[in-house]
């Protein structure tokens, strides 16, 4: 994506090529609009920012090569319980020499490897303390500006038993490429092929990313209530908002609810999904967009009730259909983070199925409502009444949301 007034510098990408000059990967590198380096902002911050952009704003753009994204990951993030909310098929985790291979880190790498994540050993010194990580290495990267050709040959002979692909990085000339090609290296990266290219795009607010993690769990066929509670507790602001909303006049609880578990039980997974989506999507949205989003969701809910469909599913679909309007990014990119059921995605993206038809009907009524025009026959009049009722309820809901801020 090119730079524009509404786009931010997200990071840079540099492709990795095979022996036939086909792209087989792309390394993601930290960049920001202020020109600060990863060392300036700190490794943990740089890692988190690159992972954040991979998982949100640019997940589709960086994977257009149909090849995995290589990224440096700090030790702290590696050992975090919720590491990457993306498919292991999409990434290769680079373990760089400055990481200390402690038992805890080795255990974290082992756990992630069992989940299907692949690892690249990058610029490491082939020291004995790294031996426990060798079985998990799918790639070994050699910086040819640091290691000589003779050293690279010795490394390959010493570790020939490993089932790993060898990458020569920082290739700057054809002569260097040819030498490592002859040595048997399979992949190549460096200025000879391509310089890092800036990637621009729309950044998703952090609150939306946290909501996305929670929504992924809530959208499973059988959500783990313990995991749902843990994710809510990891975001104190979200936890406070949920406690407030479940105790508000909107729900009229018989007794005050003071725990996350009671709030989850009281709301149920589907209503909780809707509230999490609301807080995640509407946090930075203009009020006019928020009103439209809530009205569309409520109208889908009311129409589904009339047609004896699942009203909560319709509400959820109507709300998620506004992601592009609220976030300023293609809806496909946001929905890809959630891994929704195919029927839900088809309803939102292609207006297919019974819920896609509900959404399509409401969107048509929405446009006519905005123009204050309506055909006189009963079917449309009924839809118009539903939309007006939804508009009124959405304003009430916005008032409830405002009270939690």
UniProtKB/TrEMBL annotation:
PROSITE patterns: EAL, HDOD. InterPro entries: dGMP_Pdiesterase_EAL/HD-GYP, EAL_dom, EAL_sf, HDOD, RNase_Y/CdgJ. Residues 204-389 form the HDOD domain. Pfam families: EAL, HDOD. Residues 1-210 form the EAL domain. It comes from the Bacteria. This is HDOD domain-containing protein.
């Amino acid at each position: 994506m090119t730079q524009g007034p509404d786009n931010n510098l997200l990071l840079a990408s540099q492709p990795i090529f095979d022996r036939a000059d086909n792209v087989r990967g792309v390394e993601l590198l930290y960049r920001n609009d202020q020109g600060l380096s990863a060392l300036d902002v700190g490794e943990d911050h740089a890692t988190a920012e690159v992972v954040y952009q991979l998982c949100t704003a640019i997940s589709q753009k960086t994977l257009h090569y149909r090849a995995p994204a290589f990224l440096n990951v700090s030790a702290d993030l590696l050992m975090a319980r919720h590491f990457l909310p993306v498919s292991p098929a999409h990434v290769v985790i680079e373990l760089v020499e400055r990481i200390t291979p402690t038992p805890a880190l080795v255990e974290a790498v082992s756990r992630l490897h069992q989940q299907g994540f692949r690892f690249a050993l990058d610029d490491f010194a082939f020291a004995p303390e790294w031996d426990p990580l060798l079985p998990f290495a799918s790639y070994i990267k050699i910086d040819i500006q640091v290691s000589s050709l003779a050293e690279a040959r010795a490394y390959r002979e010493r570790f020939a038993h490993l089932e790993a692909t060898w990458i020569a990085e920082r290739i700057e000339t054809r002569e260097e490429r040819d030498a490592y090609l002859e040595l048997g290296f399979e992949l190549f990266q460096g200025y000879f092929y391509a310089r890092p290219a800036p990637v621009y795009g729309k950044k998703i607010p952090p609150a939306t990313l946290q909501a996305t993690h929670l929504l992924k769990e809530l959208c499973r066929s059988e959500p783990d209530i313990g995991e749902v509670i843990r994710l809510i507790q990891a975001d104190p602001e979200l936890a406070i908002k949920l406690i407030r909303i479940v105790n508000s006049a909107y729900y009229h609880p018989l007794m005050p609810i003071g725990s996350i578990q009671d709030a989850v039980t009281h709301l149920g997974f589907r209503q909780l999904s809707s509230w999490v989506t609301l807080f995640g999507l509407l946090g930075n949205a203009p009020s006019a967009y928020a009103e439209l989003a809530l009205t569309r969701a409520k109208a889908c809910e009311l129409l589904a009730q009339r047609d004896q469909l699942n009203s909560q599913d319709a509400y959820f679909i109507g709300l998620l259909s506004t992601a592009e309007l609220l976030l300023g990014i293609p809806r496909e990119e946001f929905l890809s983070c959630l891994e929704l059921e195919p029927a839900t995605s088809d309803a939102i993206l292609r207006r297919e199925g019974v819920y896609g038809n509900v959404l399509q009907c409401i969107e048509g009524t929405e446009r006519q409502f905005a123009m204050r025009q309506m055909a006189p026959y009963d079917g449309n009049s009924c839809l118009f009444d539903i939309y007006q009722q939804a508009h009124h309820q959405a304003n009430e809901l916005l008032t409830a949301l405002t009270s939690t801020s």
